[in-house]
Amino acid sequence: MTSAQFLSSYCIFSAAVAAFRGGLLSPGRTDADSKAVAKAFREATKGLAQADLVHVTEYLHWISAQPDCVESNRTQAYATEFRLDRAMARSGRELIDDGTLITASELCLRTGTAEGHLLKLVRERKIFTMPHWVEGVFGEDYYPAFFAESHYDWTCLTAISEALLGIDGIRKFRFFTTEHPDLDNQTPLKMLAATARHGGAVNREHVLERVLLAVKEFRKRAPKLRLKL
Known about the structure:
Layout: H1 4-21, H2 35-44, H3 50-63, H4 70-90, H5 92-97, E1 101-103, H6 104-111, H7 115-123, E2 142-144, H8 154-163, H9 169-177, H10 188-198, H11 201-221
Antiparallel strand pairs: 1-2
Helix pairs in contact: 1-2, 1-3, 1-4, 8-11, 10-11
């Protein structure tokens, strides 16, 4: 439910449903065939009668072709991703309890890195902390535990983190841990783990290149608003 493909599809279908309920219908073509899109359709149209679903599907194809709808759909996509990031922030205490987020001292211990060097890496955006307003974080620095896990290539992790630029730590964390259509609906972490298992510098460079391209698309979509709980 957190992949970019699902989010985009969900926003489009939601816009179609809202317009349908407002009485705005136009004929068009039918049927979407992707499994992810079909799932989004079911989620967005819960409660509608079968006859209404037919009209919604027709309207969807019409509305997606209208230039005037592009900005509206983009705004809704931003709103949806914003809500996801806020929900992730509210689950901060659970992420700490299950070891997904770890303290600076634990990260230093597990990686053999001095705390001063850790702060340098943060300034260079090669690693990132979770914002202090995330639930459970409070005044202490917490880092994603995947920076300390040996089955991920450190060079790849830091390159991706750096490419995400000044995006909020919650959104960076979401990029690493959620599926992306540009990556065959896999998470960047899953791709990096598979690359580490199979080895090969050429394969590693190819995967990193793909993930960095996904980073560019993610940066375009990332909401510009500051998150709040």
